[in-house]
What does this fold into?
Amino acid sequence: MGSRLQLFRLKKPFETERSNKLFLRALRENCAYHYTHCPEYKQILDEARFAPEDLKEYADIARIPPIPTLFFKRHHVYSMPRRRTLIRATSSGTSGQFSDIRFDTGGLWAGLWMVLTVAKQRRLLSPRPCHYIVMGYRPHRSNKTAIAKTAYGYTLFAPALSRTFALKYADGKYSPDLDGIVNAIVKHSRSRFPTRFIGFPAYTWFVMKRMEERGISVKLPEHSIIMLGGGWKQFYREQVDKREFYEMAERILGVPEDHIVEAFGAAEHPILYCDCPHHHFHVPVYSRVIIRDVHTLEPVENGKVGLVNLLTPMVKATPIQSIMTDDLGILHDASECPCGIPAPWLEIIGRVGLKDIKTCAAGAGDILTAAVAETDKEGKA
It folds into this structure.
């Protein structure tokens, strides 16, 4: 069994420090594979004067050049022929640009072990049937987004009696059906089986607000859960404090705070970060988080704000082992959370604009200049 599968089959998903040597070995093997099989990635590493064999000690993982997610939205690069990849997942995309992430067989097996282990830890796996209300996209063959695939995957954690989707597909586009969701909630409140909400927190909030305005409140059956993921996206101006969200959920839906679970992830970093009972995103063994100074891109110590750099050896089909998000975050020591999980936890502060990314991450931009220019030439040829 390779180092990657050994890492993803660890039974304790948050023994992060104890898995450092295995993570380093898996990352080195992953880096070597991409270096050998992806010309664009090789060029990036060569420009940065970095080679896979430079990963000698655990601290060396910070030396891997982080690639901004914007690069993957503008340039689709792969480390194996697309015919050998089994699944394609895309980011939601802006202005027509989206990341196209491909998955190899080993990466999919690794992801399956990860999801089952983390979901079990958070007590999301259950033999008890339930009704699902998905605050996201109804599946459609034209929709390849990672968030749609993830949301549907969550409906496999417990047997599904029904699935109701907030975003319906018709006439070539998606549109929200909030009234349909309200009707489903009222109907399911009379069931003896629990209801599970999945998806965008914005749509969950909008539905609860609509119910409040109409004077509707319910008490959903015991064991009902709200699973949030995907962020507020274009509704960031409407984003509310988590405490206000939790209070509304208990008042309108009868779902207490300890039955609300939030997940964090990205198409370019397909690792499941599931919050603890205190709603903190502890870093699992499958990944590492480095917070980098916005001006120098040098790693900063825990407790300092910076750009979020995410690392994982999960995928071989696409070179996404070290990506730089456009999120600002803080990495906290494990001791700063009372839940007892021994891994540090990531706090997302907010998102910086593309203009800010170009300014702050100038170092990464310099590293990518040659690769981007070469890709542009090929595209025009």
